[in-house]
Design goal:
Layout (H helix, E strand, L loop, with lengths): L3 E5 L4 H12 L3 E6 L4 H5 L8 E5 L5 H15 L4 E4 L14 H28 L3 E6 L2 H5 L5 H21 L4 E8 L11 H10 L8 H12 L8 E4 L5
Parallel strand pairs: 1-2, 1-4, 2-3, 4-5, 5-6, 6-7
Helix pairs in contact: 1-8, 3-4, 4-6
Length: about 240
């Protein structure tokens, strides 16, 4: 049976690395994106039907249901989900608006909940299943100016633990990968935080999207590891 994966946020730095690695390994990838330009699609050409771009606003329940329905109609089942879509509205607590808080929570926390819930019937039909939620080192230790982002990523870890317990009955594993600060489009929006991460690193370097993607893809192929947190970083927690 051909392996089918859904990668949300596939046009982002880490999401794109995960998508490319899975395609290279022969997995058919539904590459979710929302506001990406066609350059994202053009840069991942050459995989034919192995690559299926799909646009959706994951903050909308209707859009999530429509996306999952399309996957079901196309393939009939789903092996893997990687919840990599995320945003950060950096601001100190006193300057963080409720609108920004709600927007971050909607995409970083509620969307993974909606995606897994909607896709569960498709995953049950597959021979094996694995969900990887992409959290962040900020969710483990907090980060100045990232109250919404840190809270959403910490809550995602809690969701992982609960889903691991609930979905084990179906043979579906659920784990969290928490990369450190990376030189990605999102990471470059806050140069101060990027430089601070380098200073705090025991290796004097940022986390690697390629290494984090490799860890994600390794875990997806495991069947006896669930409910765990894997930190792909070089800063002490």
């Amino acid at each position: 049976m051909n392996e089918i994966a859904l990668v949300t946020g596939a046009s982002g730095g880490l999401g794109r690395e995960i998508t490319l690695r899975l395609l290279h390994e022969g997995v058919t990838v539904v590459a979710h994106h929302y506001k990406s330009d066609m350059g994202f699609i053009n840069n991942i050409e050459g995989y034919g039907e192995k690559m299926l771009p799909m646009r959706a606003d994951l903050r909308s329940k209707a859009a999530v249901l429509s996306m999952v329905e399309a996957i079901g109609e196309k393939f009939g089942y789903l092996n893997y989900i990687v919840n990599a879509a995320a945003i950060s509205k950096d601001a100190l607590l006193v300057k963080c608006s409720e609108a920004d808080w709600d927007n971050v929570m909607a995409l970083n926390l509620t969307a993974p909940f909606l995606v897994v819930k909607a896709a569960l019937p498709l995953m049950i039909r597959a021979d094996k299943g694995h969900v990887i939620n992409i959290s962040s080192a900020a969710g483990m230790r907090g980060a100045r100016g990232q109250c919404a982002y840190s809270a959403s990523k910490a809550a995602l870890v809690g969701l992982t633990h609960t889903l691991a317990r609930e979905l084990a009955h179906y043979g579906i594993c659920v784990n969290t990968v928490t990369p450190g600060y990376m030189d990605t489009p999102m990471g470059r929006t806050n140069p101060e935080a990027l430089n601070r991460a380098i200073d705090e690193s025991m290796l004097g370097s940022l986390a690697s999207p390629a290494e984090a993607a490799g860890l994600v893809c390794f875990l997806l192929r495991t069947s006896r590891i669930t409910g765990q947190i894997f930190c792909a970083d070089s800063r002490p927690i």
